[in-house]
Amino acid sequence: MASDAAPATAIAAGSAPEPAAATEARPLLGMGLSALEQWAQQQGQARFRGRQLHDWLYAKGARRLEEVSVLPKAWREGLAATPPTGASDWIGRSRELHRSVARDGTTKLLLGTHDGLSIETVGIPAEGRLTVCVSSQVGCPMACRFCATGKGGLQRSLAVHEVVDQVLSVREVMGERPSHVVFMGMGEPLLNVEAVLEAIDCLCSDLGMAQRQITVSTVGVPRTLPTLAERALERLGRAQFTLAVSLHAPDQRLREELIPTAHAYPIEALLEDCRRYVAITGRRVSFEYILLGGLNDQPRHAAALAQLLRGFQSHVNLIPYNPIEEEEFQRPSPAAVESFRRSLQERHVAVSVRASRGLDADAACGQLRRRLTA
């Protein structure tokens, strides 16, 4: 698949692809109650029409404006003739292109955007909870070797309605209200910060989630973590979502081998930015560490990681590797995973192991999209 991914030099300089341009004629999905009321009035309608739209968007999950039967028919037909920028309909929902369901119930959806691209989202059920893994971009420019998404490069960033739609789509397909959302799908969230924060605002204000139920995962973009903290406080009033930093190595040399763009962001600088994030928000950082069999899962790596994070207000989430066809990395043995976990715990590092889900359904990020669009 062709890619117009930003070069590593641009990423190193902290530049980022812009989210879809905001215009007056934007899709309604992602707007809050007040914005919808104002929009209705701008359209020459009564303010309560905005409240009706809010109910149909978020409670009923309407897919097209024509479904919102409480609105005047003439108004609906007039709007249908002039769809907004960035969507084929005023609601702003995506089309389901493919569905893959694993034996454990993990459900991956391939969704089609208005401009013919595709994104992945995953619903992960567990006892008493449903987590939705959402994408923030179409593709990704970070080129992590163990990630299928990075193999295709970056097409563009997602607009807020395309992010929120993923949560609604999983709710619709799985017939259950999502309890948690993790920005761990396709793309680098810190290269689309404004749309991500606006989506978090919508998920909390309009879908009734709590910030503490939301996680934003990043591989690290220079000089963006303090900005994320400040913008979150400005945009959301507080920053209670979890920040998860993808570390994957205890030293710079190995990290660059796994994440080529990391050469522009020394691990010491990344950790310093994490400390600044903690100082601004008062929230600890979670570090993600993918365990690759025989490569970064040895006792010496655990000892080095513990030393690197010494004195840090953090938590380490160990992730056994989910194989992809393009790389020969190996999944670590259960014994190696347990040994690594125990080694960190003995060194007083807060640690947990993420359970692997959907291994029989192309669950690793980007796998389904690459298989169906190759």
Helix content: 25-40%
Percent strand = 15-25%
Average per-residue pLDDT, rounded, comes to 90
Query: Could you name the ranges where pLDDT drops below 50 across 5 or more consecutive residues?
Result: 1-23
Distance between the termini: 7 Å
Radius of gyration: 21 Å
SSE blueprint:
Elements: H1 8-12, H2 33-42, H3 48-59, H4 73-80, E1 95-101, E2 107-112, E3 118-126, E4 129-133, E5 137-139, E6 154-157, H5 160-174, E7 180-183, H6 193-205, E8 214-218, H7 225-236, E9 242-246, H8 252-258, H9 267-281, E10 285-291, H10 299-308, E11 314-320, H11 334-346, E12 351-353, H12 367-373
Parallel strand pairs: 4-7, 7-8, 8-9, 9-10, 10-11, 11-12
Antiparallel strand pairs: 1-2, 2-3, 3-4, 5-6
Helix pairs in contact: 2-3, 5-6, 6-7, 7-9, 10-11
Structure in words:
With 374 residues, the protein is of the alpha/beta class. It is 34% helix and 17% strand. The protein has 12 helices and 12 strands. The strands form 2 sheets. The chain has a 10-stranded mixed sheet with strand order 1-2-3-4-7-8-9-10-11-12. Strands 5-6 form a two-stranded antiparallel ribbon. Helix 2 (33-42) crosses helix 3 (48-59) and helix 5 (160-174) crosses helix 6. Mean pLDDT is 90; it is low at 1-23.
Summarize the structure.
With 374 residues, the chain is an alpha/beta fold.
